[in-house]
Amino acid sequence: MGIEFLQIMKSEMILTLIIFILLFLKVWDGIKSHKALLNITNFLLFINLAVGLCCNTDGELFSGMFHSNSTLIMEKAILNLGTFIISLMAFDWLSNHKHLLEFYILLLCTLLGMDFMISSGNFLMFYLGLELSSIPLAALCNYDLHKLKSSEAGVKMILSSAFASCILLFGISMLYGTTGTLNFKEMAPLLTFNKLQVLAFIFAFSGFAFKLSAVPFHLWTADVYEGSPAPVTAYLSVISKGSIVFIFITAMFQLFQSYNAMWYNMLYLTILLTITIGNLFAIRQDNIKRFLAFSSIAQVGYILLGISSGTAMGASAAIFFLVVYTFSNLGAFGVISLVSAKTGKENITDFKGFYTHNKFASWVMAICLFSLGGIPPTAGFFGKMFLVTAGASRGSYLLISIAVMNMVISLFYYLRVIKAIFIDENPHPISNLKGSPSLRLALVLCIVGAITMGFASGLFEYINVTLTGK
Amino acid sequence: MINLSILLIIPLVTAVLVMLCRNNTQVRMTALLGSIAQLGYSSLIMFDYISQRATGNTTQMLYQQQYSWFSRLNIEYYVGADGISVAMIMLTAVVVMSGILISWNITKWTKEFFFLIILLSLGAYGFFISLDLFTMFFFLEVAVIPKFLLIGIWGSGKKEYSAMKLAVMLMGGSALVLIGLLGLYFNSDMGHGVHTFNLLAISKMHIPLESQLIIFPLMFFGFGVFTAIFPFHTWAPDGHSSAPTAASMFLAGISMKLGGYGCLRVAAFLMPEAAHHYSWIIILASTIAIIYGAFATLMQTDLKYINAYSSLSHCGFVLFGIGMLTKTSLNGAVMQMVSHGLMTALFFAAIGMIYERTHTRQIAQLGGLLKTIPFIITVFVIAGLCSLGLPGLSGFAAEMTVFMGSWQNPDCNYRLATILACASIVVTAVYILRAVGSTGMGPIKNPDFLTFKDASWNEKLASATLIICILAIGMAPFWLTNLISPDTQIIMDNIGRVAIGK
Hints:
The complex is a heterodimer.
Chain A: H1 3-8, H2 10-28, H3 34-53, E1 59-61, E2 66-68, H4 70-89, H5 91-94, H6 101-119, H7 123-141, H8 148-179, H9 184-187, H10 195-212, H11 219-227, H12 230-255, H13 260-283, H14 288-308, H15 312-343, H16 359-373, H17 379-392, H18 397-423, H19 437-452, H20 457-468
Chain B: H1 6-20, H2 24-54, E1 62-70, E2 75-81, H3 83-102, H4 110-129, H5 133-142, H6 145-154, H7 159-187, H8 199-204, H9 209-226, H10 235-242, H11 245-270, H12 272-298, H13 303-324, H14 327-358, H15 369-372, H16 374-387, H17 394-407, H18 412-440, H19 457-475, H20 477-496
Antiparallel strand pairs in B: 1-2
Helix pairs in contact in B: 1-2, 1-4, 2-3, 2-4, 3-4, 3-11, 3-14, 3-19, 3-20, 4-5, 4-6, 4-11, 5-7, 6-7, 7-9, 7-10, 9-11, 9-12, 10-11, 10-13, 11-13, 11-14, 11-20, 12-13, 12-18, 13-14, 13-17, 13-18, 14-16, 14-17, 14-19, 14-20, 16-18, 16-19, 17-19, 19-20
């Protein structure tokens, strides 16, 4: 204990500290200027990000309930980075919003929950983290209080996550009943093909699939994404989803390793449905946030494809893709937040002729969408390639063919947006939008990340080293 | 000392500089200088390559550079060049430079236009020098998406439709290639279960026949989509005719060659047994393309559609040559790639110059232009004659080699296909002469034609460069044959390891 305790729980400690600082700022009420508050928060988040990258210690706490190692630290760093970028791009929206600090307090609570969830070595800690990360999210979805759609999103979010938690909890309780422990390490060797355990596994799997919005548990996604404010949608699609992917990898690779052959078949079906249905529905969307919701469902399918390999290579491909996805998706959402904060327009048709007056923002959008579509030289190409390569290692040509052909479909709808921005004519295009410096910084970060991350082979190797230990 | 990476660095630097330019003149000059530098360096590579071969260097790939990139997956940045690559690099350099000269007067978003053209050329250069399948695929895809924007933004006619069709079909092709690529990767074995994307290493391995039989069609038809193989050719006519001149030149001149090169270098070279096994399908598809393309051209009334459909027919010869699997026919296929690249670029350049003045490409509305713009029409005639295979121009040398090589294949049905393919040349003569005649000769249809100015310096320079290359190959085809034949020999040796014939 003592200093080591602080080191192992470093990211959680820092986050808690920041939450308290923000609470004090709220209570003190001394700084009236929204811009100053936002800058302070962004600075704090930057410190959070920076501290996350240094002085790391591996170890276990509370008799295995909480553990930390270099993979987990890296995963937390990815979440911190994403949160920092989202905070930067929320500047324009929040500087006109009445409730500012509450937004960050809720947001950071969910991030804290995710950190606990990723680090958990025990179902109790895991469930605690999961709930801490999902309940405040419903409040965030409902943050544009005057908008009906936003309230609808909040209600749908809370109901669906409660439902998912129930299913997950049911599974967990059955696992506890058959093994008598909640600790991952102790439970893993006790898992046999006992029918109750298999049922428990299926429940747990469905709970995860719900949170990941994999088909057929995806129905809540589009409505929630559409109704929430753009930065919250970005947070949902990148950070929230990312954290679930991380814990999903841990669960599948460590806890349920003995069910490997079974979860491959379940994933197989889930992947086919998720990728195909996500893509087909994305084609028909007019609202750009709904559009990105379906596209992100399809992206989850590709992440699961990597995970389905069951190898460290697949897990590293999935984590690497999440880094790429963070930059690309946030870049796209950054542009959408800018447009939505300044003009309130959120339809693809509103983007017609966008390039005429907004050259930089259009390029950001184009590059990020290309990256999401897996077009080189953007990073998304590498991310998708590694996922597909990992997925192919199990030798199913059918799965890979369908996944790859779906990349063509996805390209079609990404190109539809590109076409609206660059090619379509519009007598009254959106005028030149001048975002705040911090929003522009966010866009620059995203575009740099979306281009360079693919060439940074070091990152991929590092992820692989932390996972394999060699 | 030659460093192949410079071929990638020059376009990259040019592209960055273009984005930094302040005005249109600077943009054009930067792009032009960049492409001239690239042409210069490519020529240097060609001369050095010839002299190295002359001094007895028999390594398969010269100027190799190999760096580990993603070592965990055995992905390397691995480049090298043989005679075929050198020929294709030269072709790309010439076509890109002429394309930039032809688009001198683009005024809408000049900077973006030249940036995209240079990005395209970067993809092509990278593709032709890659020896690692992953990097090769990377560059192949780099050369797809800029076309969407080029056609969609600067194109004419039903440009949105054509651009989308082209992008989706080409990406579909590359998706097939990707599946094949993964198949090759997981069938390669470097020992201890380590796989590789290394092209030369895979060529020395024996890919199991049953895997070859799955992977080869994916690869061949995947690359074939780029070459507009029948029945995946439908993107080509729309794409070519909607694209702006420089993009058409690039599309028909280089992009379609990416497919031919891939079919030869990846599909046929790495999977010789499957190549034998499936050669009848290749011959069938390419014979249909040749004949169907020729007859479809007869029905066209738009100059660009004429050249687009005739490209279909001419690119059929490339696949035809590959499918015949004799050394001479492979030589012919490569020569046809180079020749068609130059000829079609010239053709599109001439059509572009005519369209810029008349604002129509309908043959019925044109006539008598030889009297008002003699230079442009002369260029047009030369391109046409090359297309119909007049001796002395490159088309004749290439097609002749393909036919000679094809006849060497003793199979009766293959000979029938050769005869049919030969016969298509007659059809070619009909549509070319008709197009040339009704555009250039006859009375001047429209009094506005009298006000036209003949080609400007940039147009003259672009046309002259292409014509010189066409004449050089036509008059002295042996230097091109000598350049490529040691390497087609290597490919043939690989194919020859399995029994010749069916």
